[in-house]
Amino acid sequence: MNIVVCVKQVPDTATERKLRSDDNTLDRDAADGVVNELDEYAVEEALRLKEAHGGEVTVLTMGPDKAADTIRKALAMGADKAVHLVDDALHGSDALSTSYAMAQTLKKIGFDLVILGSESTDARTGVLAAMLAERLGVAQLTLANKVEVEGSAVTIQRVTDYGYDKVQGSLPAVISVVEKINEPRYPSFKGIMAAKKKPVQKLGAAEAELAADQIGLGAAWSEVTEAAAAPPRAAGTVVKDEGDGGVKTADFLSSKKFI
Amino acid sequence: MPASRVMPTRESADLIEVVRDLAARELAPRVAKAEEDEDFPRDVFTTLGAMGVLGLPYPEEYGGGGQPYEVYLQVLEEIARVWSSVAVGTSVHVLSCFGLVGFGTEEQRRAWLPDMLGGGLLGAYCLSEPHAGSDPAAMTTRAVREGDEYVLNGAKAWTTHGGRADFYQVMARTSDERTGISCFLVPAGAEGLSADPPERKMGLTGSPTATMRLDNVRIPADRRIGEEGGGLRIALAALDSGRLGIAAAATGLAQGALDVAVDYARQRTTFGRPIIEHQGLAFLLADMEAAVQSARAMTLHAARLKDLGRPFGREASIAKMVATDNAMKVTTDAVQVLGGYGYTRDFPVERHMREAKVMQIFEGTNQIQRLVISRALARDAGAPIGVAGAGQD
Ligand SMILES: Cc1cc2nc3c(=O)[nH]c(=O)nc-3n(C[C@H](O)[C@H](O)[C@H](O)COP(=O)(O)OP(=O)(O)OC[C@H]3O[C@@H](n4cnc5c(N)ncnc54)[C@H](O)[C@@H]3O)c2cc1C
Ligand SMILES: Cc1cc2nc3c(=O)[nH]c(=O)nc-3n(C[C@H](O)[C@H](O)[C@H](O)COP(=O)(O)OP(=O)(O)OC[C@H]3O[C@@H](n4cnc5c(N)ncnc54)[C@H](O)[C@@H]3O)c2cc1C
Which Gene Ontology terms cover its molecular function (chain B) (predicted)? Predict the structure, then answer.
């Protein structure tokens, strides 16, 4: 089975994240880049499927040069090779453009199964899996906490508020995973050494045959015109219990529409 | 804040990141409770083994990572920053493989090292005895040759991982001469080998320490490592390297305490400002930072000498002494920085302080390190200048 895992480099959530002053896009140089946490679960799931069914795991990353660190980590975990979509023209791409660029690339490199995290920690749109499936014209199986492949049938458990739905599709397909799906492995030192020798193919916009008017800040459907820091949290409300503490608390919660 | 490091290769830098990640995600949430409950985290060693940390400084051909001490020690330090018992345990495991790697026959290495370095097994190192700590040549544990077996009898005190290890590197007397000591590799399952209940220690409580009893333990003669009578040399050579491990563990421990102290000092206010803005306290923190960085620099200097194949025993002793004395001071001062809170078990610094103390004691007390250093001064001429990568200029 030919599995492609989409891995995004995101700014470390533990460090302060900033927007660039020139175009209000995320300042990716300001913070340390790390693997989007859910994408580690996606890599782990791909590796387990490969271990069970054979095949190959390819990492696909769209991002600036320094996203190479993220690719190395996924390769150290055990992925076989990587494709790095990197071009200044991609800077500022919105979700539609990102899905366009990645879908074009996926068509070029081929796949039986594409696995994504269900959401990134920086932009958090959570739409990429759906958009990719749509653009590729393949089955869409999202929010999986369990994946099973049998022959050409893929079955997942899709997490819902009340439990899970069983969703089935056939290969080729796009899957997104949630963190309950597995426990990602730590790369071993042997894996780190082996990653050095694994092939990483760099593709520019031209090589991926991306139309210039479909990508980058210019193609975005929306524009961030202004950004301001969140106001500091106001002082909390203290409810003094004078025999009616419970009622007062309930009143407060209902005034905020929590109950 | 994590220490800033200069790593010799991209891969070693990647390894440091993975280890930091593991320490933050898997070790940090567990350390306080495990130490309080005297709970040995055997599973953590399985994880470290799978990552390749337990065999990191040994040759790849026997299943090790083939990394220089410069790298291995910085990995150890990162572990110690979060959990000293785990770093000390790793160092002791590495120590317990030292004899076989350095002094075993090719046949012995091929037979046992892949398992010992592969990460699934945990080792222990048995040198000390109840009446022979600083003076190991005073040991009384005996190994008597009978046909193609040795029969071992005696007691080995203070064994880290005692009763929990999979194999024991045991020094035992094979003749009455003071240095008539040999080195043996004893598997945990050997009949007659047993562990006393663990010591009730002041700190490092997540690491079991126990006396091992050898009661007519019979092992095949081919489990002797090195020559008969060569054991003390092996034990002392192992300690030179082991001391570097303890120096790194102490440096990491001190870094961990310093980080807690700095964090606290930025947040705690008295007299209307954060206590880190009171010079009297800020200077204490500055001294702590300087102590940690000096310890690291000395440890890595000794490691680089070792990696170049140069004599490093004196420097290893200096590193062990400086790093552990500094760790004692830094952790004590960290308690001071946290004031009354530092003295409670709700904050980690009192534990750090208890953990630092033992590092001045084991793998040669700091008095013994001074003995080693002063003897080297009396004996050695000035050391030549070493050049890394010599021959390429
Ligand atoms: C400050 C800011 C403003 C933004 N404004 C807009 C806006 O106005 N309109 C708009 O449409 N978008 C906007 N974006 C979103 C941005 O364009 C996204 O980075 C991009 O669309 C990818 O979406 P996502 O990260 O939300 O993907 P999600 O759907 O949340 O990610 C799901 C999964 O998709 C995969 N994935 C996502 N991105 C990549 C990648 N680059 N390479 C490989 N795999 C990937 C990963 O597996 C990930 O787990 C903004 C982002 C930021 C930070
Ligand atoms: C937690 C822990 C784990 C340990 N793990 C191991 C292990 O895995 N394997 C192992 O073999 N051992 C281990 N040890 C033993 C440790 O190495 C010894 O405790 C140490 O070497 C000191 O020996 P001792 O306790 O017998 O003290 P002693 O040798 O009795 O020393 C007592 C005091 O006298 C001082 N002293 C002794 N001789 C001199 C001298 N010539 N000049 C000046 N001062 C001197 C010492 O510095 C010390 O302060 C461990 C100890 C502890 C506490």
Answer: acyl-CoA dehydrogenase activity; flavin adenine dinucleotide binding
CATH class assigned to B123-230 = mainly beta
Closest by Cα among B249, B281, B269 to B82: B249
Right CATH for B233-379 from 1.10.357.10, 1.20.140.10, 1.10.3810.10, 2.40.70.10 = 1.20.140.10
ipTM greater than cut 0.90: no
3-state class (DSSP) for residue A177 = strand
Average pLDDT over residues A130-159: 97
Domain positions in chain B are 10-117, 123-230, 233-379
Instruction: Answer for the pair A210, A85: CB distance below 8 angstroms, yes or no.
Output: no
Interface probe for A, chosen from B27, B45, B51, B60 (most Cβ of A below 10 Å), is B51
Q: Which atom of ligand 1 is nearest to the CA of A119?
A: 30
Whether residue B393 is predicted with pLDDT greater than 60 in this model: the reply is no
**pTM metric for this prediction:** 0.89
Domain A2-229 is found in CATH 3.40.50.620: yes
Distance of alpha carbon B243 from alpha carbon B316, whole angstroms? 6
Nearest-by-Cβ selection for A189 from B10, B21, B52: B52
Residue A180 gets the label, from left (phi > 0), alpha (psi -120 to 50) or beta, of alpha
**Tens of pLDDT along A162-201?**
999 999 999 999 999 999 999 999 999 999 999 999 999 9
pLDDT above 90: residue B388: no
* A5 contacts A74 by C-beta, under 8 angstroms: yes
- DSSP E strands in A12-90: the ranges are 33-35, 56-62, 81-85
Specify the CATH number of the domain B10-117.
1.10.540.10
Dihedral (Cα; B227, B232, B237, B240), 10-degree rounding? 170
Question: Quick one: average pLDDT of A195-212?
Answer: 95
**Residue A92 C-alpha from the chain's centroid:** 16
pLDDT per position as a tens digit, B321-347: 999 999 999 999 999 999 999 999 999
